[in-house]
Amino acid sequence: MPDRTSSGAAVFAGTAPGPDPERGPALNLPRVLGHNSLREQVSHALRAALIAGELRPGVVYSAPVLAAGFGVSATPVREAMLDLAKEGLVEVVRNKGFRVTELSEADLDQFTEIRALIEVPVVTGLARSAALADLQALRPAARAIVSAAKARDLIGYVEADQAFHLALLGLSGNPHLVEVVSDLRNRSRLYGLPSLADAGVLAASAEEHVALVDALVARDAETVESLMKTHLTHVRSIWAGRE
Length: 243
Description:
The protein is mainly α. It is built from 11 helices and 3 strands. Helix 4 runs antiparallel to helix 8 (175-186) and helix 10 packs antiparallel against helix 11 (221-235). The chain starts with 37 loop residues before the first helix and ends in an 8-residue tail after the last helix.
């Protein structure tokens, strides 16, 4: 994984500086295009960077330096970070920037336990109740996860994964359920993704999403349930860097 700095001062182009014992690892952020709300785009990218481990707990990141990485002004970054602070994902460090909130392993285990209680039965039920056309429409999103994994685009991977699962849960017709799961997913940490990508196995793991769509379209509720359980096990094992 690329080196990062504790002030968030990443080298986004060219050669990165050597290690600094007083700094954390450097950031690898995507450029943000101005097609939609910059604040919204930056918020999505920052959440994905936090989940993928590009933003690390205990490290202070300044809005101007993050903005340089995104290729935007500091204002939408500052606004986006304040949004994340309201959600409890980061905390404001006066006159310095923002620090990612620390989470314990027990916290992350509990988040995943709640997700399993919600997602496994809901998605299994969709194998029986969702319209076939709606299930088929999920294929491009599932393939986007695989494409991001093959490209080693970890932030893109997390964003595509989030979009797929929330769209899938949205087929339940319960927006409150989707909101709860979205919050839990935003608090997840998948620090094992870089090592999986480096080992060339992240794409194979990402194929779980394609297999899930296949099982849903086939109305194979038993396989859907098994795949969802496996998927959530990976969230707290290989994708979290525990294995």
